[in-house]
Amino acid sequence: MSAEPGTVRPGGRTARVRAAVLRAAGDVLAEQGFAHLDLADVARRAEVGKTTVYRRWGSVTGLVADLLGDMAEQSLPRADTGSVLGDLRANAALVRRTLADARQGPLFRAVIAAATSDARTAQALRRFYDVRVGEWAPCVEQGVARGELPAGTDPSLVVRAVSAPLYYTVLTTGVVPDEAAADRAAEAAFAAAVSGVYVVGD
């Protein structure tokens, strides 16, 4: 069974082509949004043959899926501060910086908007966040092991609770949360976790 376009990770010279195309696609998303993402334009920006782009990615959604996969792989690793609250604050700070970034912020907003009406983009976005949540889940698991959080606490629920209010603020007001807001998001998630809100199962 052959893989979908944009899902095979290349090496060597092909890797350089992929990097150039993904960089160009990210630029278009950040500058103009999903509606203006065109494979021929991306190929021109990346200085790559148009047929190469069409053959490898096949569609705009295939290209976005690969871009999100690459972003998940390249994202910074989780912090290890020695405490759950410290780790969650670091996570909130990273999310806030991403949303405030001149390129990354508009790029994410464009992809999130596209995901509301395009199933494949939505699936790729879910995979991206599954990878990132999985990267940070050990901070909660270690907190449970240290006795900071109750047994049965669901790590993914806690991690998602940190970033949820930050994304909500951006999407509903257009304003990037400040550092104080990021700290509050982490503290609220931690307080809820301590109280057992995110304990699942028996």
TrEMBL record:
<dbReference type="GO" id="GO:0003700">
    <property type="term" value="F:DNA-binding transcription factor activity"/>
</dbReference>
<keyword id="KW-0238">DNA-binding</keyword>
<dbReference type="Pfam" id="PF16859">
    <property type="entry name" value="TetR_C_11"/>
</dbReference>
<dbReference type="InterPro" id="IPR009057">
    <property type="entry name" value="Homeodomain-like_sf"/>
</dbReference>
<feature type="DNA-binding region" description="H-T-H motif">
    <location>
        <begin position="38"/>
        <end position="57"/>
    </location>
</feature>
<dbReference type="InterPro" id="IPR011075">
    <property type="entry name" value="TetR_C"/>
</dbReference>
<dbReference type="InterPro" id="IPR050109">
    <property type="entry name" value="HTH-type_TetR-like_transc_reg"/>
</dbReference>
<dbReference type="InterPro" id="IPR036271">
    <property type="entry name" value="Tet_transcr_reg_TetR-rel_C_sf"/>
</dbReference>
<protein>
    <submittedName>
        <fullName>TetR family transcriptional regulator</fullName>
    </submittedName>
</protein>
<keyword id="KW-0804">Transcription</keyword>
<dbReference type="GO" id="GO:0000976">
    <property type="term" value="F:transcription cis-regulatory region binding"/>
</dbReference>
<dbReference type="Pfam" id="PF00440">
    <property type="entry name" value="TetR_N"/>
</dbReference>
<keyword id="KW-0805">Transcription regulation</keyword>
<feature type="domain" description="HTH tetR-type">
    <location>
        <begin position="15"/>
        <end position="75"/>
    </location>
</feature>
<dbReference type="InterPro" id="IPR001647">
    <property type="entry name" value="HTH_TetR"/>
</dbReference>
